[in-house]
Amino acid sequence: MLAGDTHHWEFPINHLLAYWATEGFDYVATAYNFQHLHWFAAAGAENLAWLPLISMRTVTHDWVEDRENQVVFIGQQGSRHPRRCRLVQAIKNADLPILIKTANRQEAAKWFAHSLISFNCS
Q1: 26: burial class by Cβ within 10 Å (0-12, 13-18, 19+)?
Q2: pLDDT at 114
Q3: More confident of the two residues 23 and 1
Q4: CB–CB of 29/7 below 8 Å?
Q5: pLDDT at 64
Q6: Closest Cα partner for 121 from 84, 78, 73, 74?
Q7: How buried is residue 85: exposed, middle or buried, by Cβ count under 10 Å (0-12/13-18/19+)?
Q8: Alpha-carbon 65 to chain mean position
Q9: pLDDT value at 57 more than 80
Q10: pLDDT-derived band of residue 70, with 50, 70 and 90 as boundaries?
Q11: Helix, strand or coil for residue 116?
């Protein structure tokens, strides 16, 4: 089983553990939240793997010397990301300049390179 975003929704680990138990997978791997694999070990999974960067692609661009005085956040907000929403709101409440966007990898790389601070929260 390749467990993707184990931090989405309400009680995502419980749902994935139930799925794992129902299907009888021989292996459990994740590319993202290494810290969640211990729940599978506690449930009896023996073959666990963390595959960081499995979905990584290098995006190149020119060096940006002068960056915008802003925090940039690229990603989704909403009911799937309650912690992320609280943290983005805290940045806003602190009166920090923040640019919030959704973007593909190439666009995101451009925005990250042009901003003083890049913010991400899973």
Answers
A1: exposed
A2: 95
A3: 23
A4: no
A5: 93
A6: 84
A7: middle
A8: 27
A9: yes
A10: very high
A11: strand
